[in-house]
Amino acid sequence: MSATAAAPSQAAPRRISGSEIAALKEARDNSTNIFYLGQVYVIMLGAIALAAWFFTFQQAGGASFWWNIPVTVAAVLVIGASQHQLGGATHEATHFTLFRNRVANELVSDWLCMFPLYSTTYQFRLHHLAHHQFVNDPERDPDFTQLKDSGHDLDFPLPHIEFLKALASQLWLVSLVRYTLTRARYNGLGVDHNPYRDETLKGTRWPNVAIGVYAVIIPVVLGIAKPLIGAWAVLLVLTGAGLATIAFLARLREEDFPSSHIKPVVSHRTTAISRVVFFTLLYSVIGFIEATTTIPAWYYYLVLWVLPLFTTFAFFMIMRQWVQHGNADRGRFTNTRTFLVHPLIRYAVFPFGMDYHLPHHIYAAVPHFKLPELHDLLMRKDEGYAREGLVVEGYFRSPAPERGNPTVLDVLGPKYGKRGDEVFIASDALEHADIVDKAHIRAHEEESIKRGMNR
User: Fold this and answer.
1) Please, which residues bridge with residue 197 across strands?
2) Average of per-residue pLDDT values in the chain
3) Whole-model pTM?
4) How does pLDDT run across 234-243, given as a tens digit for each residue?
5) Using alpha carbons only, what angle is made at residue 336 by residues 335 and 342, rounded to the nearest 5 degrees?
6) For residue 367, is the peptide bond before it cis, meaning its omega torsion is within 30 degrees of 0?
7) How far is CA 27 from CA 44, 87, 148, 190, 452, in A?
8) Torsion sign across C-alpha atoms 369, 374, 375, 380
9) What angle is formed at CA 396 by the lines to CA 395 and CA 398, rounded to 5 degrees?
10) What is the C-alpha to C-alpha distance for residues 28 and 26, in angstroms, rounded to an integer?
11) What are phi and psi of 393, to 5 degrees?
12) How far is 284 from 237, CA to CA, in rounded Å?
């Protein structure tokens, strides 16, 4: 159940039947999202292959060096948008809606989405479910505190020009790197103030240290040393270090890994070992290509994967994170909005149904491909949703001004600021999660409502 603290006049009659919502939730299956992930991988791998082919073609004298610049920019834009799509698929997995089978839901999300993004589904779940349950709570919503920690929180409401200036300032690489590293700390390592953290089971720091050293530090050191030791030595050291890290993690107990009040689907130790197996395979393939061919595979990996992670991927996330909940309050129908945008912006900025964000926050267990249907159902049958929920049309300009819907730029301004004192706690965001200590989470809910009502 979801808990709401509000004045009686704010309560809206709800005429949607439980069976209608249950039917939408039950639409999740073990096959549909294979198609969606396949689309993303075709676009992403196609962009990588075309860019790598052009770089090889150019180095062979087939084109001027300066053509590398527009090709790189185009590739980084497409790949960064696709990386954001992978994050969107994991967003589904955090709600257990990527696949009906829980183990498949976890493993596919980890191996095809989060491991490539240097994180795990479980850690993102801790971040994201807390965001849902305590949306816009300045102390318990990790999205709120993460933006503050990275220096990306904005003082809403904002006039159009001020938001555009803030967005333009993100083109500064230092700002994007700071955002990426802070987000990685929240999603990859977790933070102590997450309401689901278990202070009695903090484990040790060594699993994260071992993974970080192998996944990041050793490749950087070897990349610097490669001119001196050669490509074969880099391959052998990376493979050997990966196997050694796997052996180290395998010797640890499950209790050595940080835990929380949300049980993992796959054990922490298995997930940690799997991450290192993934990187060992990835780095071994890259190293083997570089050792046996003239293809600068490590250079391509840096330009066509790592560079987008720290630039366009981060930029598209900021474009989404700022507007989904910025200038909103904590009400059930007013903590976010529904966004109708151009298909290209939807792909890059609102992946996997994140454009229908208000219906998603109301019923988080409905899979992304059913959210438009849920939105239509709520508009027809929920008076509160139809009256209070905002439909935003267009990011920078409206494609149909005659409909009177605000754009993203409009909704961040003074006209669409805080509209009520309702405090909505989405307890049902945890409906598919296995909870260790329900009393602990209930205490956070009560404190969040009390503080919200006293503001």
Assistant:
1) 260
2) 91
3) 0.93
4) 999 999 999 9
5) 175
6) no
7) 27, 21, 37, 31, 35
8) positive
9) 80
10) 5
11) -125, 110
12) 10
| Tokens of residue 336, six digits | 């976010």
Q: What is the DSSP string of 390-420?
A: -EEE-SSS-S-GGG----HHHHTSGGGS---
- Report d(CA 454, CA 10) in Å as an integer: 17
Return the structure tokens found at 8. Answer: 């009686």
Dihedral angle of Cα 104, 105, 107, 113, to the nearest 10 degrees: 140
Helix (H), strand (E) counts: the chain: 21, 4
Tell me which residue of 280, 283, 262 sits closest to 272, measured CA to CA.
280
CA-to-CA distance for 273 and 214, rounded, in angstroms? Answer: 12
Low pLDDT (below 70) residues in the chain = 1-14, 188-192, 454-455
One-letter amino acid at 330 equals R
Instruction: For residues 44 and 80, give the distance between their C-alpha atoms in angstroms, rounded to a whole number.
Output: 9
- What residue type is 116 in one-letter code? P
Separation CA 90–CA 93 (nearest Å): 5
**Token pair recorded at residue 265:** 């689907």
158 Rama sector, left if φ>0, alpha if ψ -120 to 50, beta otherwise: beta
Looking up tokens 């993004």 gives 117
